[in-house]
Design a protein that fits this description.
It contains 9 helices and no strands. The protein is mainly alpha-helical.
Length: about 200
């Protein structure tokens, strides 16, 4: 019988977060429990308790992990769009997919409903860091220090709302399923066009 590989604390946390992310996508936020994640990675409940403190702590860490991963990708896509190497729709799809397919919208809602009062803190602070990374250049070029803030607010609210009720609402209004994505892309394209004119 082979001995189980000893992981560093960072490796153990990382493998737990990837397992939690897989469970979130496969079965929804209610499936992201210490017991389920421990079983998935072959560790003990006590091991995960040591790293996260509680199921709420695990969910908060997962929200932060998702937000950080997605925001890093969005930053790259925004820079590519500004350089003429990408399209606004790519940025929009990344944001919408994070809240829908990747489960961030359902996770944030679940955490709020289950009384995890600081549930959105990791998502909000990571998005704030994203805006801080993008905004200084744009504020200097456009003279509007809050433009990126407004665009980010609009994009995140559209993505979150679409993840939660987008399919049902679009169907009831007789609109295509991607109608909110199209609208968000139009808004972002208009903003990028304004940015390009100021360079």
């Amino acid at each position: 019988m082979s001995a189980r590989k000893r992981l560093t604390p960072e490796e153990s946390r990382g493998s737990a977060l990837e397992a939690a992310r897989a469970l979130l996508i496969e079965a929804g936020p209610q499936a992201v429990t210490l017991k389920a994640v421990a079983a998935r990675i072959g560790r003990t409940h006590a091991n995960l308790l040591h790293h996260f403190g509680s199921a709420a702590g695990l969910q908060k860490a997962l929200a932060e992990h998702l937000a950080r991963t997605v925001c890093e990708t969005i930053i790259e896509a925004v820079h590519a769009s500004r350089a003429g190497l990408g399209h606004a729709r790519e940025v929009v799809d990344l944001a919408f997919d994070a809240f829908d397919r990747e489960g961030a919208g359902a996770l944030a809602s679940w955490m709020l409903l289950t009384g995890n009062e600081d549930a959105l803190d990791p998502i909000i602070s990571t998005i704030h860091d994203l805006v801080d990374e993008i905004a200084p250049d744009e504020a200097g070029d456009t003279g509007d220090a809050m433009q990126v803030h407004r665009e980010t607010l609009s994009l995140v609210l559209l993505a979150m709302g679409d993840a939660l009720i987008g399919a049902a609402l679009a169907k009831s209004l007789g609109l295509p399923r991607d109608a909110a994505r199209v609208r968000a892309a139009e808004q972002l394209e208009a903003s990028l066009a304004r940015y390009a004119r100021t360079e």
